[in-house]
Amino acid sequence: TLPRVVRVPDAASMVTQDVRRIILDDEVDEAEMLAASDFPIKPDELINKAKEIIRAQRGIQDGTFDERLLADDFRFCAPFVGGATPSSPNDAMPGLLKAQYLAALRSFDLLRA
Predict the structure, then answer these.
(1) pLDDT class for 31, splitting at 50, 70, 90?
(2) Whether the Cβ atoms of residue 33 and residue 39 lie closer than 8 Å to each other
(3) pTM exceeding 0.70
């Protein structure tokens, strides 16, 4: 199908511009999915919560990060350079446990890399 044109605000200039949005053959109708969703946190609120965590994680290396922001059963599970997220045969949930995740982040010094 041909790209449809949608109007989106340009954050830098706060001017609305036309953008061609490519719709894939197997792409879901996002508006329909959101309208039918019973997830307890609305999308904008969920995005803001994620941004709060991202902002707070700036303090991981200097020790100011409040680990209580992450649930005790937190798992970091995402694709990354170097392979799939680790899992084990005894644990159906892939990902790094909270302690492993925090240790990995604390051991990496972006300024020295």
Answers:
(1) confident
(2) no
(3) no
Contacts of 17 (CB under 8 A, 6+ apart): 7, 8, 10
Residue type, 36: A
Length of the chain: 113
Average pLDDT over residues 12-25: 68
Burial of 33 (0-12, 13-18, 19+ CB in 10 A): exposed
- Tell me the C-alpha distance between 102 and 68, whole Å: 12
Listing DSSP states for 12-75 in one string gives: TTTEEEEEEE---TT---HHHHHHH---SS-HHHHHHHHHHHHHHGGGTTTT---GGGS-TT-E
